[in-house]
What we know:
This protein is of the alpha+beta class. The protein is built from 13 helices and 5 strands.
Amino acid sequence: MARVEAADVRRMTGALFIDGNPRSPGSTRFWGLLVLAAVIAGAGVIGDSTATVIGAMIVAPLMTPILGSALALVLADRRQVIRSALLVLGGAAAVVLIGMVLGWIVSPPDAFASNGQVSSRISPRLVDLLAALATGTVGAFALVRSDVSDTLPGVAIAISLVPPLAVTGLLLAVHRYHDAGESALLFATNVAAIVATGTVVFLRYGVRAGAEEAALAVGRFRGRTLAAVVCVLLLVAVPLTTGTLRVARDRLLAADARPVAERWATTGNWQIASVEARNGIVVIGVLGLPPQPAPTALRSALDAGGMRDADLELHLVGGRTHWCPAATDTCTVRKAARD
């Protein structure tokens, strides 16, 4: 494996280390692009537009301080580690705040329940961590190898940084706190993966030796630094594993509930619009003309089908929402969909 030269390290530090002066060109460029990316991402999520969200991914500059954190860790440059980490945290907070403002302005009646861009970012799984690890490796590799730097736009699209933060802000504005935490977890997963893979790639390409040749400050790299990065990855993997198992259970629950719901709907000539499960709650949408079939009958049918432990949320399209808790034979009417 070829080792990076002094000129390569100078190029990398110049690209990744943003000047602490808020009026410097690098700093103004970072914050300007970040605000624009946040607005674009928020608008894309609200409009459920994949193309607009992709545009925000390309514009977003968050990849710079994240990879900068990895490079600073490898060089054992504490000042740059702190500066890069603060930029990531401050940038993330700014995007979330902008998302909250947009959420307060729009505030849809269904609280983004039917939004595909939101739904795709509130159930992070282990596969998301694996994809982030691969994408982070490509990003660090493209940075080390100037001859493959043209792959960076693809990396920006593949790694999801600003959109999950925009979703977090939007969901906080409509009080969907649990789902907001899930989208924030997706962002944290991507950050941890980029830092971890960036650290490994930079070490493998001998960035420290190149930095010494370039007369840059290089501190002592300790094994505990790498151990800390691995620990962060493991900490992120725990909730992702839980999320993966939860998604699998929800899919099985929805598959079991569908035939039961369809048999129940035929008694009143109603139609099943949707059947899904969210965190162990069966959510069913039905449509038809009055009179409506009894929600308690569906609750009893689910109990008889071995789903006694699952709560039921029944949405009548154009009508009310009924909430039927597990292990009961009663249902209550809700004015709005449950978060």
